[in-house]
Amino acid sequence: MSALVTGGAGFIGRQVVAELLDRGVAVRVLDDLSRARPGSLEAFEGRPSFLGLTKGDITDPAALRRGLLGVDTIFHLAASVDVGASVYGPVPAVRANVLGTLNVLEAARAANLRLVLVSTCHVYASAAGPLDEGAATVPASPYAASKLAADDLAVGYRRAFGLRDTIVRPFNIYGPWQRSDLEGGVVARFLQAAMADRTLDVHGDGAQTRDFLFVEDAARGIVDASVEAAVGQTLNLATGRETSIAELAALIDAGAGRVRQVPHPHPQAEVERYFGNAARAHELLNWRARVALPEGLARTRAWFAELAAR
Ligand SMILES: NC(=O)c1ccc[n+]([C@@H]2O[C@H](COP(=O)([O-])OP(=O)(O)OC[C@H]3O[C@@H](n4cnc5c(N)ncnc54)[C@H](O)[C@@H]3O)[C@@H](O)[C@H]2O)c1
Fold it and tell me: Ligand 1, atom 38: nearest CA belongs to which residue?
């Protein structure tokens, strides 16, 4: 396999690159660096299988063509991921996530490439029980709607053109390299606040729940999903454990009394409960999350401490 990772300089994408390189796969990154943390690709420079960065926008077909030279598989992660921003101005999310994905699908179709499309649990409605892949899809924000539109486009390409794709829906990913300026990056936001001895601001009452998946587990699942047996499948990646935001804040605060509730900036786009059923990924890929939340939090905290010391 030789792969292009779109969004490969981002939080999850760079971990997918690391996983692929560790498996001996030649990898190129296509990223416009609009949201990447500085230095996110430094660790890969000099590794013989790292084909480097093509700096470009996925909405630009010429940039995609450059990125795809000599590649047989696309891991598509580039996206505009800020849920809150999409509520105030949906155009960037629709542009990157729908039009950008359309370009990726066209490129995959034209060259008969294998595609792993990274979707999100945000396409699902709030959970009444663990969400499997057949759960109702009810996007609560323009971000979620744009991701669901991308998934539907992929299904349309699969049916109309025989595209060999797999849709992967990871739940709430956290870990080293996550940005702390995004609402979705609540672990990063709370850890940085705690480390600076600031308040941990919980949006609303904190009863909303999430299924927190460590970034290494997510990346391993995304790469595993490129096997032939997963063509035409939609696969959740989740731990099946539900943690409320209030519990998460308490865990990170460790009794220091810095947790406070603040008014939710956009309660209409909040989802009450997310937790997933990843039985299909286990069955097809033998994938299971390995890193439990306390260990993942400790490793993420250590990374932020290292970053602060640089
Ligand atoms: N973070 C999560 O909890 C989570 C959960 C499920 C799914 N996802 C999905 O995983 C993917 C990666 O998310 P992330 O959290 O790593 O976000 P991120 O913002 O860290 O990474 C996205 C990368 O894409 C790049 N990018 C953005 N728009 C681009 C464009 N038009 N052209 C080229 N590059 C562009 C950014 O510079 C960034 O490096 C997204 O598709 C997201 O929807 C994220």
Answer: 10
